[in-house]
Design a protein that fits this description.
The protein contains five helices and 22 strands. It has 454 residues and is mainly beta. Strand 6 and strand 7 form a beta hairpin. The longest helix is centred in the middle third of the chain and has 10 residues. The chain starts with a strand and ends in an 11-residue tail after the last strand.
Length: 454
């Protein structure tokens, strides 16, 4: 921190002191601060002046803050001129104007005063008579009502509506109209229940009464067709007949569907159910069964196999898809496969069957097969298998063969299943037209029973 002195007192006795310091320095306090004219932070270029505390001064074109403006207000001549043009808060205008709280004595009427009806410039004689009427009778006279408004009895006149004279008018219970209106004006009503206006029983007055209770079913009389709005609504409804579902379209959500859910604990006769795996129907109580929902492939032409001994798809040609595979979700499936082969090798050999694909599964199946002239009856050969079998019948030199296979697959991880064939002796064998594979879901992958088992 550095001190510099300025003024008539010389280098060490000046009238003003300027202190230069860093923003990190502690600025002097009293009593020294009172004799310092200016404090400058050399690292921030900020200027401070002591006014009971160190106040930052605005430098250059920056804005000043209220409370930091120094000097005398009158030195700001434009502001002082603006203030001089204003009157004191509690002022009056002396002889030129009256005091704030004044009246005009004889020149003007008192603040509270009256005017007679005759001074209402746009009034009519009838209107002024009504305004000045002393009582109800005078008011009726002013309006030319005569005695009609006070009479009871019956009103009569010509069919053209011409009044034949000063007639009596039958009011409620014989009361004059003006008295009835007085009664009506005096009524009060609190609440939100439905009310009706009626004559007090046995009296001449009026009262509010709670509306009668709603009409009950069975108490409505007359003809239904007379209630046209209800009759029209009924006419727009279809008769109660067996439901007919409209035809679906190629668009999504146009066919009737069952939502997947938990099936009934006790099967009910006539129920249709869907658990997300298979559909069920229950023809009689406790006799739920699985509905047939079958997937199949049938060749419309022959499928020539590759000349190899390894397994290959049976249905990847002859009209079948390129991979010859079906994709299955988890579940238990019953299947059947039937195919015939020709053009097998004349060298002694046989053929086999397997289920390939990416699905994780277990399987069991049986086969009845032959490798002799197919149209000639002969004893088939039976095989029971839980995996691929490369020889469904004994080896022979026959070049034709056929088999019928039935079994169960339990898929625990969804994926593809591919019916496959193999040969013990390679040849470009041909799968016959109308060879087929069909498979249908019968339950979840762990299903044991469906039906009324005990």
């Amino acid at each position: 921190m550095t001190l510099q002195y300025f003024g008539s007192g010389g280098a060490n006795g000046g009238d003003q002191v300027i202190v230069t310091c860093l923003s990190s320095d502690i600025k002097p306090g009293l009593p020294t601060a009172a004799s310092i004219g200016l404090c400058i932070e050399t690292d921030t270029n900020k200027f401070y002046r002591w006014l009971d505390e160190w106040i930052e001064l605005s430098v250059g074109g920056g804005a000043s803050a209220w409370g930091n403006i120094l000097g005398t207000l009158s030195d700001q001549t434009d502001l002082q001129s603006a203030l001089n043009g204003k009157s004191a808060a509690g002022h009056n205008h002396d002889s030129a104007y009256s005091a704030l709280g004044h009246d005009h004595d004889a020149d003007y009427a008192a603040i509270v005063h009256t005017h007679p009806a005759s001074e209402i410039s746009d009034s009519t004689a009838v209107g002024r008579s009504l305004v000045t009427a002393a009582d109800q009778a005078a008011g009726r006279t002013a309006l030319g009502l005569g005695t009609l408004a006070t009479q009871s009895g019956t009103f009569s006149g010509t069919s053209s509506g011409t009044n034949t004279g000063d007639q009596t008018l039958g009011g409620l219970g014989g009361q004059p109209v003006d008295i009835q209106l007085t009664d009506l004006a005096a009524l009060s009503y609190v609440g939100n229940a439905l009310k009706t206006l009626r004559v007090v029983a046995g009296e001449n007055g009026l009262e509010f009464a709670t509306a009668s209770a709603a009409v009950s079913w069975g108490a409505i009389t007359g003809t239904l067709s007379a209630q046209t709005d209800l009759n029209n609504a009924l006419a727009a409804k279809a008769s109660l007949t067996a439901p007919v579902f409209v035809a679906g379209t190629a668009s999504a959500n146009t066919a009737p569907k069952l939502t997947a859910g938990t099936v009934n604990s006790t099967p009910e006769a006539g129920a249709l159910e869907f658990d997300g795996v298979v559909f069920y129907s229950t023809p009689t109580a406790n006799s739920r069964g699985v509905n047939l929902s079958e997937h199949f492939i049938v060749l419309t032409g022959t499928n020539t196999l590759a000349s190899q001994t390894g397994v290959q798809p049976i249905f990847d040609g002859g009209g079948g898809p390129a991979g010859g595979a079906i994709t299955l979700p988890t579940g238990t499936y019953a299947f059947e496969c039937q195919f015939a082969l020709s053009a097998m090798s004349a060298t002694s050999g046989s053929f086999g069957f397997a289920l390939g694909g990416t699905a994780t599964k277990s399987q069991v199946w049986t086969s009845l097969s032959k490798d002799a002239t197919l149209a000639t009856a002969s004893t088939p050969q039976y095989a029971y298998n839980t995996a691929a079998n490369t020889a469904l019948c004994a080896a022979s030199t026959a070049t034709v063969g056929a088999t019928d296979i039935k079994g169960i697959i339990r898929v625990t991880v969804a994926g593809t299943v591919i019916p496959q064939v193999s040969q013990t002796t390679a040849a470009a064998a041909v799968v016959a037209v109308n060879s087929f594979f069909r498979i249908r879901p019968i339950g979840a992958s762990g299903v044991v029973t469906v039906g009324n088992w005990s």
